[in-house]
Design brief:
- By secondary structure, the protein is an alpha+beta fold.
- It has three domains: 293 residues, Beta-Lactamase (2-Layer Sandwich); 152 residues, Beta-Lactamase, CATH 3.30.450; 72 residues, Helix Hairpins, CATH 1.10.287.
- A seven-stranded antiparallel beta sheet has the order 1-11-3-2-6-5-4. A six-stranded antiparallel beta sheet has the order 9-8-7-13-12-10.
- Helix 11 runs antiparallel to helix 13.
- The radius of gyration is 40 Å and the shape is elongated.
- It holds the Pfam family PHY.
- Its EC number is 2.7.13.3.
- GO terms for molecular function: ATP binding; phosphorelay sensor kinase activity; photoreceptor activity.
- This is histidine kinase.
């Protein structure tokens, strides 16, 4: 949503009162550069090994291998896996590692030195990563069998949801029942990275966030990218001490290990503090993906440490995937419905353009109300070369021309915005009548197009915390760092310069109208070309006929003169006789040229067949000499 661009500028302004421009840019760089996928540590509820293949030689190990299995971490790297887990379990791991993909691998439960683990495998940067998640019955583990008894019923409810709101509500309610988290909500990302809570199921004593907006700084860009790549992340206890890897750098590459797909990956301390500020100590997030992009999150939180088993997490991940598919399907159906609503109006406007005497834009100008109703606009401007026609509530023609020039420079044939002044500041002068614009234009050489307008609609947006101060700052050895905000108090902000957002159907209608205008304009040009060809053919036929008659007369007179001079016998002047012969040849040549002229018109019309014939070249030279000789005298 474009409203967030304005808030981003306001937030930036709040920070800029404390820092100069250069320092602020450094701050943003420090935040964006935080290596959250390379933490060099894990959470303490499991062990991690990096292994070579196929030998299963240990390259790195988490430091808690000593407290869990009794091995000094600095002595483990370089050893074979069976030295730590035993030959039997090492062979099991080797067999499991033969799979190209571990997504469908059956559960791998194992016991080493009396400690129960669930093993998980994945590959990262050409090494095998083995994670052993501790199965601690005393860690408030959620029983899978108790929680998933109604899994089939829940999936049926998700599939039966008739609209998005019902889908969201069923999802959060059932996941809360299944996992036992105090709060489960669905968080949808907006275009600029900010997000809104659109569904929530919470314990009675929990603070409610449903309907609130959260600034983009709460989930920075690199964190969103990890959510996009990895379906699920869990933090059983945010008050943990990270367990480092030994050694910190991979001995084969001397680089940090990429833990993007590690379940045990240690998270940013900023995020852990953020959780505590929200009043929760454990969390789980399931990504909602649409078209390969991060659409939103199913976010779970609990006030005390809570461990959710891997099997139950897998069930939640499956639910997230089902919800993602349902969201995609329902949004596709909604887009299809919006398009169907436009079909009749588009047909009528297509007919108006096709039957216009002059051009397609004159045809549209005959249907201004229908043109505005097509996309729910309150004003529309039609630009055709130097002429601007306005209908309804529109800015001045000069403002429209300036706006059109700016949009043409962007190179987008269709442009839509419901916060025009955020992208085109001069529009602030007329935002009361034109905060939203939808425009389409045809290719040059002349300026043309249609611009629809929507007026400003003032609205109050509820934020979790002050949107003007989403960033707290702290110093560190590396420089200035962002710190999670401590207040989630509801703030109401009245937004100005915002229009009702253009729907997918509106943008589709603009694209379809443009396509129809192009087709009609091209058909009109083809008809004009055909008329010009017909007129030329008629002219050629008339000229040929009018010239052929006098040439026939000339040929006849030359023949008569030749006979008359021939009767005089040898007394006839040879010069006169030769001249008469030349005149006859010239007349004959002119008739041939007239025939060729008619043949050219047949060739262009595709009604002429060319058959090559042999010709004596000397004859051509002789004719040329005879016809051109008089000119040389």
């Amino acid at each position: 949503m474009c409203i967030f661009r304005a808030l981003a500028r306001r937030s930036r302004g709040a920070v800029m009162s404390q820092l100069d421009e250069d320092s602020f840019e450094v701050l943003l760089t420090n935040c964006a550069d935080e290596p959250i996928q390379f933490p060099g540590a894990i959470q303490p509820h499991g062990l991690l090994f990096t292994l070579t293949e196929p030998e299963l030689i240990i390259l790195q190990v988490s430091a808690n291998v000593q407290t869990v299995l009794g091995h000094a971490p600095e002595e483990v790297p370089g050893k074979a896996l069976d030295c730590v887990l035993g030959a039997g379990w090492a062979e099991v791991i080797k067999s499991a590692s033969a799979h190209d993909s571990f997504a469908d691998m059956p559960r791998l439960l194992m016991s080493v030195n009396g400690v129960e683990f669930e093993a998980m495998l994945h590959r990262s940067q050409d090494v095998l990563v083995l994670e052993l998640e501790i199965q601690d019955k005393a860690a408030q583990a959620v029983s899978y069998s108790e929680r998933t008894g109604n899994m089939g019923r829940m999936l049926r409810q998700l599939h039966a949801a008739s609209d998005l709101h019902t889908l969201y509500e069923v999802s959060v309610r059932e996941i809360q029942k299944m996992t036992g988290y105090d709060r489960v909500l669905i968080y949808r990302f907006e275009e600029e990275g900010h997000g809104q809570v659109i569904a929530e199921a919470s314990a009675p004593s929990m603070e409610l966030f449903n309907g609130l907006f959260f600034p983009a700084s709460d989930i920075p860009e690199q964190a969103r990218e990890l959510y996009r790549r990895n379906w699920l992340r869990i933090i059983p206890d945010a008050d943990y001490t990270p367990v480092p890897l030994v050694p910190q750098l991979r001995p084969d590459t001397h680089q940090q290990l990429d833990l993007s797909f590690s379940t045990l990956r240690s998270v940013s301390p900023i995020h852990c503090q953020y959780m505590k500020n929200m009043g929760v100590l454990s969390s789980m997030s399931v990504s909602l993906i649409q078209g390969g992009k991060l659409w939103g999150l199913i976010s779970c939180g609990h006030r005390t440490p809570l461990y959710v088993s891997h099997e139950l997490r897998s069930a939640c991940q499956a639910i997230g995937q089902v919800v993602s598919l349902q969201i995609s399907a329902m949004e596709a159906l909604e887009i299809s419905r919006q398009r169907e609503e436009k079909v009749l109006a588009l047909k009528q406007l297509h007919h108006a353009m096709a039957t216009s005497d002059d051009n397609v834009f004159d045809g549209l100008a005959q249907q201004p109300q229908q043109l505005m109703d097509l996309v729910g606009a309150t004003g529309v401007a039609i630009i055709d070369d130097r002429k601007t026609q306005c209908f309804g509530n529109c800015p001045t023609p000069a403002d429209i021309r300036a706006l059109h020039t700016w949009m043409m420079a962007s190179g987008n044939p269709v442009y839509a915005s419901h916060h025009l002044s955020s992208a085109f500041p001069p529009a602030e002068a007329y935002q009361s009548i034109a905060s939203g614009v939808l425009a389409m234009s045809l290719p040059k050489p002349v300026d043309n197009g249609v611009i629809w307008f929507r007026p400003e609609v003032k609205e109050s947006v509820r934020w979790s915390g002050d949107p003007d101060k989403p960033l707290n700052l702290e110093g560190s050895e590396q420089g200035l760092r962002l710190r999670p905000r401590t207040s989630f108090e509801i703030w109401k902000v009245e937004m100005t310069g915002i229009a009702t957002q253009w729907s997918h159907g509106d943008v589709y209608a603009a694209n379809d109208l443009r396509r129809s205008a192009l087709e009609n304009d091209l058909a009109r040009q083809v008809r004009k070309e055909q008329q010009a060809v017909r007129a030329r053919d008629e002219l050629v036929a008339v000229v040929s006929h009018d010239l052929r008659n006098p040439m026939t007369v000339i040929s006849m007179l030359c023949g008569m003169m030749q006979k008359s001079f021939s009767s005089d016998g040898p007394h006839t002047s040879r010069r006169i006789s030769t001249a008469i012969d030349t005149m006859q040849q010239a007349a004959s040549r002119m008739n041939v040229l007239l025939e060729d002229l008619l043949d050219t018109s047949k060739i262009e019309a595709g009604r002429y067949t060319i058959t090559p014939q042999p010709l004596e070249v000397s004859q051509i030279f002789e004719e040329a000499y005879t016809l051109l000789a008089p000119l040389a005298m």
